[in-house]
Amino acid sequence: MIIKLKIMQTVGIIGGSGFIGSYITKKFLAEGYDVKVSVTDIRKSEKYQHLFNLKNSDKLNIRGLKLEDTESLKDFIKDCEIVVHSGTPFQLDVKDPKTELLDPTINGTNNFLDAVSEAPNIEKVVFIASVAAFNTNFPLPAGGKTTTDTFSETDEPFMSEESHPYAQAKFIAQRRVEKFIDENKNLNFEITTVSPVMVMGKSLSTREDSTSTGLQFLIKNKIAPDDFIQSLYDHDVPFAVVDVEDVATAVFNAATKKGLHGKDYLLSSQTYRVSDIHEMLNHREPREDAQVIYKNNLAKTDLKMDFKPVKATLATYS
């Protein structure tokens, strides 16, 4: 049985001005919470100014924060009852994987876990992981599976050292979270993780540095800036997609319900081939029917999710 937590007053959202983070910020503000959002560089107001257009933005507080600064991190979360970690880098064009992805993601997760373990008021922590925490080959199938084989939270997580560094970083970071939970049996707060597949939809900002919206633009226009993107077109890869607003709803539900400690939820709607995603982004009908490859039953049951059809999600992108 899931029991509602008592009404929380303050939520801290690390990375709350990004593509997914902005929708999470919007959801908590709409529900009446005081919301603190961290940004890596407070001087770059163009990256978070859009948040002040949201409903209840008078309850919004923007703070500069880098996860490697442990003392600033502790100060940021000390008065929060809920903390959402959406602050790991998502980029596909990588020159130095260790510096750009592995270190920030893994070390940032370690610092964050150390900080929350000492925070006096926290009752719930939610990590935004990735489908890569289950399968680093995504959007290709995990080892031993085909493109039509389903994948759920009960499947053995799969990692390949040949996978993209972003996927490897997210996989390792989630194993670190699981180890922390296993080693700390008497925590005073719950940790819940959500792992979305490819997140798509309309951005709340006009930022041009979003990998998610950038990928939608590339697929819509069949542009291939690198071999990785070209391979998606060449093999017409099936892509599991989830709506960005649905991710925010799932995070909110995970943050405000009790009894979900240690769980990691796949967030997924439907799977279409890249060629059909291209068609729908251009407001045309897909040629094939949708599949549900990454199972979403657990999120539907525990988080009460009703995932939008992919066609409706892609219709919002212009």
Q: CATH homologous superfamily of the domain at 10-200 and 241-268 - what is it?
A: NAD(P)-binding Rossmann-like Domain
The strand order across the widest sheet is 3-2-1-4-5-6-9
Distance between the termini: 41 Å
How much of the polypeptide forms β-strand, as a percent range?
15-25%
Q: Poorly predicted ranges (pLDDT <50, ≥5 residues)?
A: none
SSE arrangement:
Blueprint lengths: L9 E5 L4 H12 L3 E6 L20 E5 L5 H8 L4 E4 L11 H20 L7 E5 L36 H19 L6 E7 L1 E3 L10 H11 L5 H8 L3 E6 H12 L8 E4 L2 E4 H8 L15 H6 L7 H6 L3
Parallel strand pairs: 1-2, 1-4, 2-3, 4-5, 5-6, 6-9, 7-8
Antiparallel strand pairs: 8-10
Could you write a compact summary of the structure shown?
With 318 residues, the protein is of the alpha/beta class.
Descriptive labels:
10 helices, 10 strands, globular, alpha/beta, 318 residues, Rossmann fold, 35% helix
Summarize the structure in words.
The protein is of the alpha/beta class. The protein has a domain at 10-200 and 241-268: NAD(P)-binding Rossmann-like Domain (Rossmann fold, 3-Layer(aba) Sandwich). The protein is built from ten helices and ten strands. The chain has helices at 19-30, 70-77, 97-116, 165-183, 211-221, 227-234, 244-255, 274-281, 297-302, 310-315, and strands spanning 10-14, 34-39, 60-64, 82-85, 124-128, 190-196, 198-200, 238-243, 264-267, 270-273. A seven-stranded parallel sheet has the order 3-2-1-4-5-6-9, covered by helices on one side. Helix 4 (165-183) links the parallel strand 5 and strand 6 (190-196). The protein is globular, with a radius of gyration of 19 Å. The mean pLDDT is 91.
